[in-house]
Amino acid sequence: MTDPGVVAVTGASSGIGRATALAFGAAGWSVACGARRGDRVDEVVADITATGGLAFGAGLDVTSASSVTEFFDTVSGELGQLDAVICNAGISVPGCLADLDAGDVRRMIDTNLVGAVLCAQAALRVFRHTECPGHIVFISSDAVQKPYPNMLPYGASKAGLEYIAEGLRAELVDTGTRVSTVRLGPTETEFGDRWPGRAAAELWRVWERHAVLPTDAVLTVDDVGEAIVEVVSAPRGIEFRLVSIGPTARGTDGDDGESDPTPAGGTSG
Ligand SMILES: NC(=O)c1ccc[n+]([C@@H]2O[C@H](COP(=O)([O-])OP(=O)(O)OC[C@H]3O[C@@H](n4cnc5c(N)ncnc54)[C@H](OP(=O)(O)O)[C@@H]3O)[C@@H](O)[C@H]2O)c1
């Protein structure tokens, strides 16, 4: 196993990012947490330090090159040599392509693709400067594998991210830097909380009609966080290149067969 070091998690204020930061903290890593909602980031940092861990938090907007540079410049000063970054920050705005607002399309690409690229670039500059091989992890979605109707620009942003991951691995072949893509299925988070009205329930029905969801089970953020720690903690001789994670299908034992088509808080992206 790779010894715990310093990891930066973007989008650490909620959902998968928050759970991942906590899981790294519990595994003995020093954790740099970034997101726009500074108060939420501070809570995550407090949760890690309350259990004896080391953490640092700062406001971070991944769509801003200067914010990203400032965040990564500060991490090493606060926690020491950066070993890994989890490019997790992401958003989605649902809607059929014909009706989606152009600004929302740009915001998705800007956050999910450009934002992750800016963070990877900043981390690579730090790795090079400190002569640390480092590890870059991109959080993707099973939407890449099977397009989710009414989420197409979102899926395209993640497909672009996977393309970057594959190409980046080739560019870094002589450096020892590891590049991993973690492709997630539906996970119970705040992801759909900002969607209008009954958008989540309606989307779920559309996806059922198009059979894009293999099961109505959803992943928990705690399980996902632990899996991401495993990817980064793998022995240095191993590179998890593409890890596709879905929920275990609910068994029939004790299941009354009357499941709600929209699991509580369960969105997908
Ligand atoms: N939930 C799912 O079903 C699912 C499935 C597959 C993949 N994913 C991916 O998992 C990642 C995390 O999503 P989640 O489900 O945990 O949703 P979430 O709870 O809404 O978390 C999204 C995180 O991204 C941050 N963020 C958004 N825009 C940002 C920006 N411009 N700069 C910095 N941080 C930003 C948010 O923080 P602030 O608002 O405080 O900035 C928040 O911490 C995303 O990349 C998403 O695409 C989710």
Largest sheet: 7 strands, parallel
- Please name the CATH topology: Rossmann fold
Shape: globular
Termini Cα gap: 30 Å
- Structural class by secondary-structure content: alpha/beta
User: CATH top level?
Assistant: Alpha Beta
Strand content range: 5-15%
Topology of this structure?
Elements: E1 6-10, H1 15-26, E2 30-35, H2 38-50, E3 55-59, H3 65-79, E4 84-87, H4 102-130, E5 135-141, H5 152-171, E6 178-184, H6 199-209, H7 221-233, E7 242-245
Parallel strand pairs: 1-2, 1-4, 2-3, 4-5, 5-6, 6-7
Bound molecules: NADP nicotinamide-adenine-dinucleotide phosphate.
The site of NADP nicotinamide-adenine-dinucleotide phosphate (NAP) has 32 residues, from helix 1, helix 4 and strand 5.
Protein described:
- It is a single chain.
- This protein is α/β, with parallel strands linked by helices and 269 residues long.
- It has a single domain (6-245), classed as 3-Layer(aba) Sandwich (Rossmann fold).
- Helix content is 42%, strand content 14%.
- It is built from 7 helices and 7 strands.
- The chain has helices at 15-26, 38-50, 65-79, 102-130, 152-171, 199-209, 221-233, and strands at residues 6-10, 30-35, 55-59, 84-87, 135-141, 178-184, 242-245.
- A 7-stranded parallel beta sheet has the order 3-2-1-4-5-6-7, with helices on both faces.
- Helix 3 runs parallel beside helix 4.
- The chain is globular.
- The two termini are 30 Å apart.
- Residues 254-265 have low confidence and may be disordered.
- The structure holds NADP nicotinamide-adenine-dinucleotide phosphate.
